[in-house]
Amino acid sequence: KMVSLLVCVGSAFVALVFAGMLGWLPRWMSLKGLVLAIVAGYKATHRQLLKIQGLNTDDVAYRRVVTGQTWEEFCDTLKAAGSAVIGHGSPKDPLTQAEGYRYLSRLTRVALENFIECSDPMNPSLVALANGSRLCRVCIGSDNPDNLYQNAVIDPTCTYRVTGTRGTVHYLGFGVQSGAYGSPGGLRTVDYKQVHDKDFAIKDDGTLELYIVPK
Fold it and tell me: What are 210's strand-pairing partners?
């Protein structure tokens, strides 16, 4: 029954994506929103099926790594993402499509940096994704090219202490966000503080200290 259900979900996903590429979806329904909803539903169903079997997501994750399934699915997902470049409504001239594939490759690069190399919430490290001064820069979320955006993956149940110096930058701010671009609900700002706020103290030697704590 579990295999049949997964096959049905997979078949529905393929059929709807194909319909979207051909422009057969209703005008009020976006392909991106439809895909996200299907993926979210599939994940929820999969977790419940694992629970029935007495397994959890960690058990499955370990198995997928040692069998090579994780790597194969990553490659398949990246290949499927390229369909957006040639999908319905996208420009068809060679230059624009080449730029689309190049942008996808840059998104892949920063995703690997953020979610693989710098993703340990027990030992967080700052990584610059949208960096206007970086070669082959990536634009994400209408970023300001004059800004340097750095982020780190943290655990909402932990407490973190951030220290440093004010330096010579004209503007400095710290924010906490939840969610992700492209996910249901998007990337939501939980809290944000600017260095020049009255409740943000900077010591006489120019150093600052910031604590991030669970609510």
Answer: 162
Q: Kindly report, residue by residue over 77-102, the tens digit of the pLDDT.
A: 999 989 888 888 889 899 999 999 99
> Is the C-alpha dihedral spanning 99, 138, 118, 186 positive or negative?
negative
* Chain position carrying tokens 């194909």: 18
Comparing C-alpha atoms, which of 101, 81, 80 is closest to residue 91? 101
* Strand boundaries in 39-133, DSSP class E: 127-131
Contacts of 200 (CB under 8 A, 6+ apart): 193, 194, 208, 210
* Contact between residue 173 and residue 192 where contact means Cβ atoms under 8 Å apart: yes
E-strand spans in the chain? 127-131, 148-151, 160-165, 173-179, 187-194, 207-212
Q: Is the pTM of this model over 0.85?
A: no
Residues with Cβ within 8 Å of 155's Cβ and at least 6 positions away in sequence, in order, are 121, 122
One-character DSSP codes across 155-212: -TTS-EEEEEE-TT-S--EEEEEEE-TTSTT-EEEEEEEETTSTT--B-TTSEEEEEE
Phi then psi dihedrals of residue 105, to 5 deg: -65, -35
